[in-house]
Amino acid sequence: MSNLHAPTVPSGPTTAPVTNGRATHLSIQELQRKKDGIEAELKALGGVLDSHGVDMNTSLLTHDGFPRADIDVAQIRTTRARIIHLRNDWKDLMALIEKRLHEHFASLEDNDDDTTINDATNVNVSLPQDWIPETLDPAFAKVNTVVENSPAATAGLKPGDLIRNFGYVNQENHDGLRKVGECVQGNEGQNILVKISRSSGGGRPQELRLTLTPRRNWGGRGLLGCHILPL
Question: For the whole prediction, is pTM greater than 0.85?
């Protein structure tokens, strides 16, 4: 999906399953970011269900046993399946974070045993890698056009901006920008954090954090008023 003037969520599977085993090598900070991403996606998917007026338990069949014609049954089923998958991922991730935190604080206690009280300068010598500055995700999309007075323009997006993060969406999970459309649809009227890289005329690019609020009735098409292309 290269045109986000009318973002939609596909009715079929959107991403390949992500095994939690891949998270075992991540730092605590990276695990926290992964947890935040899952929670943000769950919130957006909940918004998709809300847009249809259903929840995880609403019947999708008529009293006669036929699929309801007033809702997109295929999309709802796919959304529900993704929510169940993410809930399981979140549960496993929280268990891993708890384990890593216990290991981390246990190592701090061991280090304290080897550090004399008078040698205070050595206490902070070996800071864990979990406290390194946040690394920038690779860009996965480029802003092609921005309509004047649109939500995108109000947020500060400009043509040429490279998008590193769009809410919970990044290079690893954007799925041809389909996840961007899902994030937009599920967060109508809500703030979305967008991290961009902007060229500064030959110098070092600016790394900016923008707040984008998708909304209708701004005077143009769609919820954003911009055209985004995948890299």
Answer: no
